[in-house]
Amino acid sequence: MRRRRLLRGIGSAGLLLGLPGALWSGAGNQESKTGLVLDRRFLDHMIRPDHPESPDRLRAMRALFEARGLLGDCRRITPADHPGDSLYAVHEERHIERIAARYPGTHPVALLASGGAVAAAEAVMAGEVRHAFCASRPPGHHAQNTGEEKGFCYYNHIAIVARHLQRQHGLKRILIADWDYHHGDATEAMFYDDPSVLFFSTHDVSAYPGTGHASRRGEGDGEGFNINVPLVCEDGDSEIMAAFENRMLTAADDFKPDFVLISAGFDSRKDDPLGCFKVSDSGFAELTALMLDVARRHCDGRLLSILEGGYNLDGNARAAAAHLETLVEHA
Asked: Measured between alpha carbons, how far is residue 161 from residues 13, 25, 26, 29, 235 in Å?
């Protein structure tokens, strides 16, 4: 039954996968103020052939970006092979060593995804772009220091880039918003007692990993800087927008972030085989516009989003395209 649901999730993406196109590499539009990290090497990781976190996620996404002219609307950012010392600010050496030993093929791809996030953040900080989207994989917001893959994740890219911005650029306050269907448990854990990072998440608390209860508000100096807003099955645009407008905006305005980060998981979209929310593509465009407004008010528009989940190939591509189109329109 689960496999039939996954196959139904492919939809028209099967046609997109076969579209001819230009090479993955390219400069894009060097005048654009919207950055895009998208690299063929992200395809080199595969858990197993029938796994939902598949290279086809990016193939479908890239094909739709090309079909809609988005590749020419963005400035391409080349990911660094390694995120540098910021990796060790988040992950213990034992975790890194065990990931490298257990998953030798995936290890360099996961580092590349973290390196892409750092490269995109550097482009924003240098003023080369105002904001950027990392269309990268594997995802990261479940990666703690267990020495093994958790929830398809190996390294926590968004946590790494948050620490990079603080340590390399002296930023004091980082906002992380996570709209993935699954709770970003590792991101929460890494900043749970830290008042310099405001973590806001909407998710299904009954789904993997079973965390993200509203009572989890942070501890010590970090109390009040961890905000979980669980949603329920069948919730869609109105419910997720209400959560962001009523809870995130007030907290963000009080916090006054120096940089806005988004864990952009599109498994909260309707028809995802691993989720049961009903967020539409226009809903993701609205969420993106709202987060851009927060960034404009508080940090000169500095914003970076990183792909997390999204397993309906066609749906994931369409939601990501709506997100990227909104970034381009507001550059």
From this structure: 31, 23, 24, 24, 30
Token look-up 């988005």 returns 70
20-69 pLDDT tens trace: 444 576 778 999 999 999 999 999 999 999 999 999 999 999 999 999 99
Sign of CA dihedral 329, 262, 30, 68: negative
230 and 212 in contact (C-beta within 8 Å)? Answer: yes
Give the mean model confidence (pLDDT) for residues 3-27. Answer: 45
| Strands in the chain per DSSP E | 34-37, 75-76, 131-134, 174-178, 197-204, 226-231, 259-264, 303-307
pTM for this predicted structure: 0.93
The reported pLDDT for the residue numbered 24 is 72
Using CA atoms, how far apart are residues 118 and 111, in angstroms rounded to an integer?
11
Sign, CA dihedral 108-41-162-198, equals negative
User: Is the distance from CB of 229 to CB of 217 less than 8 angstroms?
Assistant: no
User: To 5 degrees, how large is the angle CA 208–CA 214–CA 218?
Assistant: 100
* Selected catalytic residue, list 95, 142, 157, 164: 142
Is residue 142 part of the annotated active site? The answer reads yes
Domain extents in the chain: 2-17+28-329
Q: Which residue has the tokens 């507001």?
A: 330
CA distance 307 to 263: 6
Residue 91, amino acid = H
Q: Which residues pair with 37 in a beta bridge?
A: 134
Tokens of 165: 């911005």
- 255, 227 contact by CB (below 8 A): no
- Per the rule left: phi > 0, alpha: psi between -120 and 50, beta: everything else, 227 is beta
| CATH architecture under which domain 2-17+28-329 falls | 3-Layer(aba) Sandwich (3.40)
| Distance, first Cα to last Cα, the chain | 43
Residue 231: phi, psi to the nearest 5?
-110, 175
The alpha-carbon radius of gyration of the chain (Å, integer) is: 18
